[in-house]
Amino acid sequence: MSDAPLPLGPVAAKFGVPVWKLRRLFERGLLPEPPRVGAWRVIRAEQLDQVEAALRAAGYVEASAGAQ
Q1: How far apart are CA 36 and CA 30, in angstroms?
Q2: pTM for the whole thing?
Q3: Kind plus residue range of the DSSP H or E element containing 55
Q4: Comparing C-alpha atoms, which of 15, 21, 24 is closest to residue 48?
Q5: pLDDT digits over 26-57, tens only?
Q6: Which CA distances in Å does 59 have to 20, 44, 54?
């Protein structure tokens, strides 16, 4: 995977969740607010493990979701 930051849409698709669930992680404080590029929040590739852990903690995905 590239080191380029990913918008929330592709990150959500990777884990099979709607984008609103990712946004909710920031609102609930399960993840720090990500940087923005223009109007879009972006996630760095090295943060994907943290995103997956937060999605599991929130009960949004099973433990094996997104693992590739």
Answers
A1: 18
A2: 0.83
A3: helix 48-57
A4: 15
A5: 999 999 999 999 999 999 999 999 999 999 99
A6: 14, 22, 9
